[in-house]
Each structure stands twice: as C-alpha cells, then as structure tokens.
Write a structure and sequence with these properties.
three-stranded antiparallel beta sheet, elongated, coiled coil, ATP binding, cytoplasm, microtubule, Kinesin-like_fam
C-alpha cells in the first residue's frame, strides 16, 4: 500500500557561537551525528536575525494564493530553524551532562588523590617517628658500642633518602592536585558558556514562538479574507442574476424592436406600392386631361363651326374640371404619402440605431457576465485550494458524499421525501438533509454530489488529490456505504462505456498523461501496481497467475500474505504480486483480470454484490536528474464491501458467512474511527485485516479521502443514516499532517540511474 522511503540520516556541522565572538572548537562544542530532517543546513546568528526580520513581499495584496504559498514556505523555514535549534539544544544538553560527569570524575579523582596523600603523610610520620626512635637507640648504642656507629649512620642515610623520595612524591601529588583544580576551573567556565548559550537559545525560541503566534494571527486573517471572498462571491452571484435579468429584458426589448421594425418595413413597402400606384393613376389622369384638352380644343373649334353642340361643350368642361379636381386630390395624396414615407424612414433609422445600441449593450453585458463567471470560477478554485490546504494542516480525513440516482422500479416520489439538499450559499454543494420518521437529520461534508452528477464531475473534484501522489505524497481514497449504493460504480465505473468510467481508470489516465508532460522538466517515473482483496478475513492476490493461489473451494488462500509496517509508515504484504506498468492500457488489462478474480455474488439487495474489500495500490517512484531530487508516492484506491442486514439481504450458507465477515470488518473500522475521534491512546487497528492494512492511511501521514455512497429510496433510510453518521465521525478525525516523501539523489544512485 505505501511506498518505501530512503534513510534521511545526515551529519550536521557544529553551530557557531550565537554572540559571534568565535566558532566552537571540537573540544568546546558538540557535533550532532544523529539523523534529522534539517539535513546539512547551518544557521548563524545573522541567518536567524535575517529570518526573524524578513518581511514577505507580494506582487498583489489580493493574490491570496501567492500569499498562502509564501506564508507556508516561510513557516517551513521557521520550523526548520526551530528544529535545528532544538537539536542543537539537545546536543548542548548532552555535552553539558557529559562535562558534569567528567567534573564529577575529576572531583572524585582529586578526593582519592587527597586521601592517598594523607595516607602517605601518615605513613611518613610513622616512619619519621620510628626513625627518631631508632636514632635515639642508635645514639645510646653509639655510646655503648662504637662498632655499631657505622651501621647506624648507613641506616640513617638510607632513611634520609627515603624521606627525600617521599617528599618528592608529595610534591608531585601537589602538582597533580593543582592541575586537577585548573581543569575543574576550565570545566566550570565551559559549563558557564554552555549555560549562556542555552539562555540565548531559549530567548531565540521564545521569539520564534511569538512570531509563530503572529503567523497564526495572519492565518486567522487569511481565514477572514476567505470569508470575505465568500461574501464577494455571493455578491457576484447576485450581480450575475441581476445581469441575467437585465439581459433577458433587453432581449425581450430587442425582439419587440425587431417586430416593430418588421411592421414599419411592411408599412413602408405598402406605402411605396401605394405611391407607385398613385403615380400610375396620376399619369393616367394627366394623359386623360391632355386628351380631354385636345378634345376640348377640337370641340371649341367645332363649336365655332357648330353652335348646336354648346351643351356637349359644357359637359366636357365640367368633366375636365372634375378631373382637374381629382388630379389635385391625387397630388395631395402623393405629397402626404411622401411625408409618411420620410417619417417611416426616420423611424426606421432611429429603430436601427436603437437596435445597434441594444446589441452593443447586450455584448457588453455578455462580456461582463463572462468575466463575472470567470472570477466566480477562479474564486471557487482558490476557495477549494485554501480549503484543502487548511484541511491538510488540520490533518482531517476529507469526506465526499454521493447520492446515486433512482433505479428503474424504485419509487420516484421517495427521493423528495427522504433526501433534500440545502439551498443556502453557505451549504450549497456541501449539505444534505435526511428525513426519517418525520425527523430531519442534517449533515455537512466537504462535497455532496447530487444524483445527476457525472463521473467526470466527480473526478474533477479529486484530480488535484491524485496529482499529489506524483508529488511524493501517500494518497488513499476509499468508498464506503451499504450494498447497492454505487461504491463499485464510483470506483470502477461501467465497463465498455467511456463516459461512465470510474475513478480508478480516470486516475490512471491522469497519472500517465502527467508523467508524459513532466518528461520535459526532467522527471522520470516508474510505476508499480498491486491488487488484492480481503475475503472472509483472508488476503487474496488478484494478480496471481495461479488460480489455485487465488481461490480454493473453502475460500482460504494457500499462500499466507502477512501484513507488515516499517518504521517509515510503509506497508508491505508478503508474497504479493507487484508488476511494473508502462501505460494505462496495461493497467486496464490488469483491472479486468482482477475483476474476473474478485468475489461477487447475488443477494436480494444487489444483483452484482461485491463480497470482498478490493484494494488497488499504485507505487510511484520519480527521479529528476537535473535537480537531483527523488520522490516516492503511493496511490491507494479501495472499494469496500457494502454493509447489509441479514433481514434484507436474505443471505444463507456461504453468503451468510461473507456477510458476517464483511459486517465484522466494517464494525472494526468503526471502532478505529471512534477511537481516533476520541484520541484514545490505544487504537484497535489489529482487530481486522482491513483496519490493519489501512493503518498508515487512518493513523499516519497520508492524504485520505472517503466517499460515502447513499441510496435514495426510502427503504434504505436507516442504512443511509448510519452511513452518514459514520462519515461525520470520519470527517472529524485528525490523523496528522501529510508529509511529502522526497530526498536528494546519492552519488551511487546517480551512477546507477545514468
């Protein structure tokens, strides 16, 4: 499940004196040879003061992303400095203890020397007394015996030589005592200097703690800024709604103006046709008038000749006058039509100008709406990133809730009565309400997916989390829920349908695409895949080519796959098949192979019910020769078997044993979550194979995400409520801050990789 990590032990050089007078020599300062995360970093007084006096500069005070990244980098350097000072403090404490022990030994040695010197002085005094007694007896004997005088003189000379030797020995001991006292004074001076250094370090530590509290205040301000961003987001959403309303109103006005313009154009066409017809009639009237005038002239000439036709002439005159009147009327009508045509042209021109203005206004509104939507999307991305950063700093397990759609044959009216979603901006996309026995239960998670959410939308939410596996983090994503709630569909998808691919195929496609794009930056990745299932508390290797090793008649694998955790939080399963993969096609083939070997069965609640816990592990090892950097990441994708009640599933025989084993392991998972939530000293990871396998994900430095899958029908309300309550407890657990696994390439590694 979890990748291996190289030893980070390094030798750190001695720390120079904080007051800047001189460097500590090997005799006066300790050298730490213990492994630490600080590497070969050395901090001087100037470095510490520069770090404390450093002011973070920003290109833009509204660029919260840059501010958070700079702040996180500055906090990392402060933590590095604090750790370095703590290690140096431990080294000096150890050296101080060592000097104290040496001082005690020297004092003991001096006391022993003084005691031996006193003993020797007493012995010399006794010898002197004996010599005096012998000298007196010798003088008495000298008076008595002359022959014994030479012997007494010889013995007296020998005694004098012995006394001189004793006095020399006493002088040597006195010199040794003076040297020991001098060493004691130098040791006291060194202890005093170490105490001064310790006080300085304590002062630096207190100042760093004060600055850390200041950074915490800045982080709180960033949280307030995020809240203000949420308020601005709501205002932008409201502005977008208003702009959309204005846009729809302008569109209605545009449609009305277009309709009125069409009517005016029709009227103009009618007026043009009418003017043309009037012009034709006018021409006809003029022709008739000319014709009548000619006739009148001929009649007048004839009248002169024939006076009998006076009546006819009078009639013709009246006819001509009437036609003249008609011609005038037609001319007046023609003038009025010309005026109306000019007015219609002016109206049409005004409407066209108004139409162009409205069109430009609509274009401006569209651009403003697009900009607002873009800002909204960017703000949402920034909010998600900051939210993820805060969750990573807190170390919480993130929880996504997904409600599957109703299946054919299920009651469509139950969803609205059972499950609802809050419409407030604060809980939009994060809240879910469940009704049971007329009682409302509200839950809030990191994300809630509605039944109409596509597989692509779900994957977009976790794509950045999958990307962090390539960056050297341990990532774990697992699906939890009752049987038939859509866990396997979420993780694996629907075979043969590209649009309904699950998270596992999409994660692999993203990883291989990102690996290809990172080649230009000098990164080379090696990927290894393993797949297993936990069936009736037995681990099965799903990639094993030996079918007997995968499954036997009694359901027990002949190979014993023992789970082991090392000191770095990495997990190893003995005798498990691990294969190198080069493309997503190879992994798809292995997934199909594992799906054929996985245990499935039919129950009354699910036609294709998973009867085991499926664990897919992708180990990622990356090397960048240009930056001499190595990363080791792990991606764990887990499809848990669904919880079920025997009264509903109707399981008997082998299915009954499977159900009991599944419910027992999920109950153990609940005990682990409950212990983590209460922060108990003992967490029962070893109660089941599942919890022991998930120990690094639930109690280590991994980025962990849980999908809780919910069935919407009313008959599953009880199980859905239990799943949501369990998910809420999981979301409240703090498992520690995720740690990136990276190190520098060693010379031998560079030679072997080259």
């Amino acid at each position: 499940m979890v990748g291996t990590m190289a030893n980070n032990g390094r030798i750190r050089p001695a720390f120079p004196v904080a007051n800047g007078s001189k460097d500590l020599t090997p005799d006066s300062a300790p050298v730490s040879t213990a492994g630490s995360e600080c590497g070969q970093v050395e901090f001087t007084r100037e470095d510490v003061e520069a770090l404390l006096n450093e002011r973070i500069k920003y290109k833009s005070k509204f660029n919260y992303k840059e501010r958070c990244e700079n702040m996180m980098e500055y906090i990392k350097r402060l933590r590095l400095c604090i750790r370095w000072f703590q290690e140096l403090e431990l080294d000096y404490a150890f050296e101080q203890e060592k000097l104290k022990n040496a001082l005690v030994l020297n004092e003991k040695h001096c006391a022993d020397m003084e005691a031996s010197l006193k003993n020797k002085e007493e012995e010399l005094n006794m010898i002197i007394e004996e010599l005096r007694k012998n000298f007196e007896s010798a003088q008495i004997q000298l008076a008595k015996e002359q022959t014994e005088k030479l012997a007494a003189n010889d013995s007296l000379g020998k005694e004098k030589e012995a006394r001189l030797a004793v006095e020399k020995a006493q002088g040597g001991l006195t010199e040794e005592l003076g040297k020991a006292q001098g060493e004691l004074q130098t040791a006291n001076q060194r202890i005093q200097s170490v105490n001064d250094m310790y006080k300085l370090l304590q002062e630096y530590n207190s100042s760093l703690q004060l600055y850390n509290s200041k950074l915490q205040g800045d982080l709180d301000e960033a949280h307030e800024t995020i809240k203000r961003g949420e308020k601005e987001r709501t205002e932008i959403v409201e502005n977008i709604g208003n702009l959309k309303g204005q846009f729809s109103a302008l569109q209605d006005q545009l449609v009305a103006s277009k309709a009125s313009q069409d009517d005016i154009m029709k009227q103009k066409a009618e007026l043009v046709n009418e003017i043309a017809s009037l012009k034709v009639e006018l021409q006809q009237a003029k022709d008739e008038r000319d014709h009548h005038l000619t006739e009148l002239k001929t009649l007048q000439t004839e009248a002169n000749k024939y006076n009998d036709f006076k009546d006819t002439i009078t009639e013709l005159e009246t006819t001509c006058s009437s036609q003249s009147n008609q011609i005038k009327e037609l001319q007046d009508r023609l003038v009025s039509c010309d005026r109306r045509l000019q007015m219609s042209d002016l109206t049409t021109f005004e409407k066209m100008n108004e139409f162009e203005d409205q069109k430009q206004t609509i274009i401006d509104l569209k651009s403003r709406v697009e900009e607002a939507e873009l800002k909204l999307v960017e703000g949402e991305k920034l909010r998600k990133k900051l939210h993820n950063t805060i969750l990573e700093l807190k170390g919480n397990i993130r929880v996504f809730c997904r409600v599957r759609p109703l299946l054919p044959g299920e009651n469509n009216g139950d969803e609205g009565k059972t499950i609802s979603y809050p419409a407030s901006l604060e809980l939009l996309g994060r809240g879910i309400d469940l009704m049971q026995n007329a009682q409302k239960h509200s839950f809030t998670f990191d994300k809630v997916f509605l039944p109409n959410t596509t597989q692509e939308d779900v994957f977009i939410e976790i794509s950045q989390l999958v990307q962090s596996a390539l960056d050297g983090y341990k990532v774990c994503i697992f699906a939890y829920g009752q049987t038939g709630s859509g866990k396997t569909y979420t993780m694996m998808g629907k075979p043969g349908n590209a649009e309904e691919k699950g998270l596992i195929p999409r994660c692999l496609e993203q990883i291989f695409e990102t690996r290809q794009s990172l080649r230009s930056q000098g990164w080379k990745y090696e990927l290894q895949v393993s797949m297993l299932e936990i069936y009736n508390e037995t681990i099965r290797d799903l990639l094993s080519t030996n079918k007997e090793a995968v499954r036997t008649d009694n359901g027990v694998s002949p190979q014993k796959h023992a789970i082991k955790h090392d000191a770095h939080g990495n997990t190893h399963v003995a005798e498990l098949t691990i294969l190198d993969v080069k493309s997503s096609r190879e992994v798809s083939f292995l997934l199909d192979h594992a799906a054929r070997n996985r245990s499935v069965g039919k129950t009354q609640m699910n036609e294709q019910s998973s009867r085991s816990h499926f664990v897919f592990t992708l180990r990622i090892s990356g090397v960048n020769e240009s930056t001499e950097q190595q990363v080791q990441g792990v991606l764990n994708l887990i499809d848990l078997a669904g919880s079920e009640r025997l009264s509903k599933s109707g399981s008997t025989g082998d299915r009954l044993k499977e159900t009991q084993a599944i419910n027992k392991s999920l109950s153990s998972l609940g005990d682990v979550i409950f212990a983590l939530a209460k922060k108990d000293d003992h967490v029962p990871f070893r109660n089941s194979k599942l919890t022991y396998l998930l120990q690094p994900c639930l109690g280590g430095d991994s980025k962990t995400l849980m999908f809780v899958n919910i069935a919407p029908e009313s008959s599953s309300t009880g199980e859905s409520l239990c799943s949501l309550r369990f998910a809420a407890r999981v979301n409240a657990c703090e498992i520690g801050t995720p740690r990136r696994q990276t190190n520098i390439i060693k010379p031998l590694d560079r030679l072997s990789l080259g």
